[in-house]
Design goal:
436 residues, alpha+beta, Beta Polymerase, domain 2, seven-stranded mixed beta sheet, two-stranded antiparallel sheet, 9% strand, elongated
């Protein structure tokens, strides 16, 4: 088939062409397949490591042709060829046996025909192949037509595809989020029947798909699709339990928030509160720093939709305490979250809330400009000075003393002098030891 112009005009990494040439010279005509072909048709650039080469050559034949090869997934037909500094993944055409764990086939059969290999793939837009050496394009399942119609359609019978691999249902919604495509009706209708297979997929793989989904350009509509198909109840049951109106609101906040992981996750989870949100992120086995960041953002976050914008601090001492808890570096992110929520409100509600938010931001910025002490490291006394003044060695009392002094300084920054803090330290210590 004559290739589309996007493929004819594409420039391919030399490492990829080198691998294709060597395989072809040995009598193994090979192809670029899957996501690489799809993205080239979408005019998305690809690095050499992002191309998948499919070949009729067996893994052992591939290994015999190249000097540097890593048997990365040899049981499933995949090896990685090293060309200079580049890594090129080469996979033998294959058919697959039954899927018993909802993720991988129990057995693999190596094949000689390209179309049989493409038939095992998930969606038609991922079941296209291109040979740049002969400028030959193969699209046996009309993936290009589906792309022109902005449609995600399963290869063959959707229920069979989703029953084989539980991650495919999540991938369908994630692709919808990234591309702004809709699911073909039959493909969408098959997802609810595959939910038990989705439950078999590891938390890490589900979290990877969910993370990519929430960061995508069309995350808002895709999150609603996640709920309508029943996938939300599998991957985020606590969020699925929210009323539909609350979930619609959260999806809308996600849509307006900057595409940063902590911000988008905080937007999605703000309806369950900071502690539960942090627990959910940690339960997805995402990095601990991310779960902590989501919790911290939500503890600092004033929710205009909840009609209590006064939750943002306005008195100077309250602002300093808020800054000490939140961290000055997070102020822009908190207000990005507030701004995203403001954009979801009705015009009348937004008009009522926005002035208070603006006043709070101005007050916080003014306090930041004054550079008040906000952490124990900013105090005029450090731990050694505390031990010296008290005549005591190291112990928990040192940290307690510093936090007590910080609380005093947050109330009145003028107290952050060595003399004033020393006097307060002695008063505090006398009361503490007297109580003991």
């Amino acid at each position: 088939m004559r290739p589309p112009a996007a493929l004819e005009q594409a420039r391919f990494p030399e490492a990829i062409l080198d691998v294709l040439r060597r395989l072809s010279a040995a009598g193994h005509r090979s192809w670029l397949v899957g996501g690489a072909v799809r993205d080239l048709l979408l005019h998305r650039p690809r690095a050499a490591t992002d191309f998948d080469v499919a070949t009729p050559a067996t893994p052992r034949q591939v290994m015999a042709l190249f000097r540097r090869v890593i048997p990365t997934g040899i049981d499933h037909g995949t090896v990685t060829v090293l060309v200079g500094d580049e890594k090129v993944e080469v996979t033998t055409f294959r058919g697959e046996g039954d899927y018993v764990d909802g993720r991988r086939p129990a057995s693999v059969t190596f094949l000689a025909e390209l179309e049989a290999d493409l038939a095992r793939r998930d969606f038609t837009m991922n079941a296209m192949a291109y040979d740049p050496l002969q400028a030959d394009f193969r699209d046996p399942f009309d993936g290009r037509v589906d792309m022109s119609r902005r449609r995600i359609r399963a290869v063959g019978e959707p229920a069979a595809r989703f029953g084989e691999d539980g991650l495919r249902a999540m991938r369908a919604v994630r692709f919808a989020a990234q591309l702004g495509y809709r699911l073909d009706p039959a493909t969408r209708a098959a997802i609810p029947g595959a939910l038990e297979v989705v439950r078999k997929v590891s938390v890490e793989r589900v979290a990877e798909e969910l993370s990519r989904l929430v960061l995508a350009a069309h995350a808002g509509p895709a999150l609603l699709l996640l709920r309508r198909t029943g996938l939300l109840g599998v991957v985020l049951p606590a969020i699925a339990a929210l009323p539909l109106s609350a979930y619609r609101h959260a999806a809308s906040v996600v849509r307006h928030a900057p595409a940063e992981p902590a911000l988008r996750l905080a937007a999605l989870l703000h309806g369950v509160g900071p502690e539960e949100a942090s627990k959910i992120v940690f339960g997805l086995r995402l990095p601990r720093r991310l779960s902590d960041e989501v919790g911290t953002l939500l503890r600092a976050y004033a929710c205009p939709a909840a009609r209590h914008p006064a939750a943002l601090p306005d008195a100077p001492a309250d602002i300093r305490r808020w800054l000490a808890r939140t961290g000055p570096q997070r102020v822009p992110a908190v207000f990005e979250l507030v701004s995203a929520e403001l954009r979801t409100l009705s015009p009348a509600h937004r008009a009522a809330v926005a002035p208070e938010v603006s006043r709070a931001r101005a007050a916080i910025d003014a306090e930041l400009a004054a550079a008040p002490p906000l952490a124990t490291g900013d105090l005029a006394l450090d731990g050694r000075a505390v031990m010296s003044l008290l005549g005591e060695g190291p112990g928990p009392h040192v940290g307690e003393a510093l936090h007590h002094l910080l609380d005093r300084v947050l109330e009145d920054p003028a107290q952050n002098t060595r003399e004033a803090l020393a006097a307060e330290l002695r008063r505090w210590w006398a009361g503490r030891t007297g109580a003991l």
